[in-house]
Amino acid sequence: MSVDDSTVPGTAARVVRLGAHLGARIDGVRLGGDLDPATVATVRAALHEHKVIFFRGQHHLTEDGQYEFAQLLGTPTTPHPTVTSAGAKSLAIDSHQTRSNVWHTDVTFVDRVPSASILRAVALPSYGGSTTWASTVAAYAALPAPLKLLAESLRARHTNRYDYAADIEDHPGERDRAYRDEFESTYFETEHPVVEVHPETGERALLLGCFVKEIAGLSGTESRALFRLFQDRITRLEHTTRWNWELGDVAVWDNRATQHYAVDDYDGAEHRRLTRITLAGPVPVGVDGTPSTVLAGDAESYVRAPLPRAA
Ligand SMILES: O=C(O)CCC(=O)C(=O)O
Ligand SMILES: [Fe+2]
Q1: Using a 6 Å cutoff on CB, does residue 18 contact ligand 1?
Q2: Exposed/middle/buried for residue 232 (C-beta within 10 Å: 0-12, 13-18, 19+)
Q3: Who's near 173: CB < 8 A, 6+ residues apart?
Q4: 130 lines ligand 1 (CB under 6 A)
Q5: How many C-beta atoms lie closer than 10 Å to residue 170's C-beta?
Q6: Which is nearest to 247 in space by CA: 217, 229, 271, 215?
Q7: Tell me, what DSSP letter sits at residue 7?
Q8: Structural domain boundaries in the chain
Q9: What does the pLDDT look like over 149-174, one tens digit per residue?
């Protein structure tokens, strides 16, 4: 464990690095809408450097406070492009409805992929239920030169009607079915570059995950083979960090530089609930400057969210 001495003077925030490629815990910060500018600058810099950052002990934080903190980092979207029944300001990730035990970057089936996600633990199982993040920047950087060139030349089509069966062995129960019906209620499909240039850091990152349907211009067999080749690079354990949640924890990740996976290793009777707010992001661009293109669906109302009225 090492303390990063790059913190901005004038803030009590301390950044404790958790891994070579990603992950840091930030101590000494009480999250909310009233954070001072030096602390916000520290949080923002840590997010870009470490890709996923964690805060412990934020027991005071309500959904409103989470939203106000989110507004200091960017512009919150609506909770989700299609799932509108699971919260007004935030999206409830509730084990009674869904378990995100697939590797993904959030909401890549729209053109304006969220820039960041802010997740707060509300109810946790007595054991298990951790979340793992992987650095898509480290995965790209570790590619041999010929594979970098190949990845940079590819574009992938992402949809919200994706192949759950590929990764989840259990048959979805009725609750899952209803959630999935809502998830897929409007069809979205977007073609993204497989290597995107991060709009703030300039770093190159692989943009894949479970919403990928195919690699443009290739057969199904070729798409699957190339997807696996690059996806397996992303999820190498050296490129990951794993967080064991406690009540009061908040995680913030750079959604342009990571994928994540919620580990489903708690029993069915145990309840796990977290609330997520995503921040609006720009349309990704590839290394040649070509942006992503929409093939189906209009995410305008998701990214240009009218502020929810105070309760
Ligand atoms: O349940 C979790 O830990 C993460 C769920 C997820 O994929 C998300 O919040 O975007
Ligand atoms: Fe997610």
Answers
A1: no
A2: exposed
A3: none
A4: no
A5: 11
A6: 271
A7: P
A8: 78-303
A9: 999 999 999 999 876 445 444 444 55
